[in-house]
Amino acid sequence: MDLPTIAAPAPELTPPERRRAFLDMWLVDHGFIRDIYWNLHRVADGVWRAAQPAPHHLRRARDLGVRTVLNLRGRRDTCGAYQLEREACARLGLTLIDFPIRSRSPLDRETLLAAAKLFGEIETPFLLHCKSGADRAGFMSTLYLFLHEGVALREAMRVHLSLRYGHVKQAKTGVIDFFFEEFLRETDGSREAFVPWVETRYDRTALEARFKENWLAGILVNKILRRE
Fold first, then answer.
1. Containing H/E element for 144?
2. Could you tell me the residue range of the domain that residue 155 belongs to?
3. pLDDT tens, residue order, the chain (228 aa)
4. Which of 106, 143, 165, 200 sits at 20 to 30 Å (Cα–Cα) from 41?
5. Quick check: pTM over 0.90?
6. CATH number of 39's domain
């Protein structure tokens, strides 16, 4: 079960620690790609989605008015990108919330309910991010528009679960789309039906067993793009 947790401010990194963290973020975590294209997009008033931010990205987010950063990768103390993100958020006065979610298998019931609850509690403006800004960011952006903004689910899916952001629904990451399709198939599709459906009818194991990925798309996403 994965629940959102406010990250406690960490001590500032020493110069050698910061250099090591930067090299890990830039080379191992593919930060050099995000320096070219951060995949930043507006979701709604006061809400943005993006890929993993570097400190200079977080300064840009603060200039947009962001007060909260929702990290969908979760706490990763040995990862340079997370170390720098946590330090930068503390320096910039941003609240960092760690909320790890998956993109290749259906989420647990408790995680889904926690996400629905979080949208009513999180301080805005906020930025949500995963590694590439494609799949987990797409899932949460879709869910936010549907549950909090009242946008029709299929419209939110059309906009935020698309190749425009790098989301490939034919790969294993398409389980995100499949999850929403199952909800639409089994209910009237209203946002009022979502939490009761998750609480009483949602079967993560059965849904995962029914979902099939395209093996070629899987190679693209997992082997070539090396998505998380």
1. helix 136-147
2. 5-224
3. 678 999 988 888 999 999 999 999 999 999 999 999 999 999 999 999 999 999 999 999 999 999 999 999 999 999 999 999 999 999 999 999 999 999 889 999 999 999 999 999 999 999 999 999 999 999 999 999 999 999 999 999 999 999 999 998 888 899 999 999 999 999 999 999 999 999 999 999 999 999 988 755 455 555 545 566
4. 106
5. yes
6. 3.90.190.10
